[in-house]
Amino acid sequence: MMNKTPDIKEDNFVRIKGIRTNCVTGEEKEVIVTLEKYFYMQPLNEWWVCIIGGGVTGFESFKVKGCDFSTGWLACGGTKDRWDKLYIPADQMQKLEPIFGVGKNEQR
To answer: Most buried among 1, 27, 28, 70, using CB within 10 Å?
Structure first.
């Protein structure tokens, strides 16, 4: 089991826009997504970003190190008639780099 320890700085959370596609109708709508950065202690010892509000499954996350913030992120691919699709556009991901970028997080 992984031990998740949140960073206690004020920039721990950020809200950005995403595009959610309804799994039944295919209708797209803009949604506000809240993300949190956190540090997985053992066994990973790495920084991660997780959607904590506005997500689809509650498990959407990515590892900060190696993330290309200049591209979009398909947070949830969706499943027909079961799970909506959630996409974070590139312009929104670019807003995350100054807050969650590797250089900033390596200062832990």
So the answer is: 28
Q: Which of 19-23, 45-49, 84-88, 97-101 has the lowest mean pLDDT?
A: 97-101
Quick: pLDDT tens for 50-68.
Answer: 998 899 988 899 988 888 8
Residue at 70: amino acid letter: S
CB 48 within 8 A of CB 63: yes
Tokens 């970003």 belong to which residue? 49
Residue type, 48: W
Q: At 42, is the secondary structure helix, strand, or coil?
A: coil
- Contact indicator for 20, 33 with CB cutoff of 8 Å: no
- Kindly report the pTM of this predicted structure: 0.79
Q: Which residue has the tokens 């959370």?
A: 13
- Structure-token pair, residue 53: 């509000």
Q: Whose CA is closest to 86, among 64, 62, 67?
A: 62
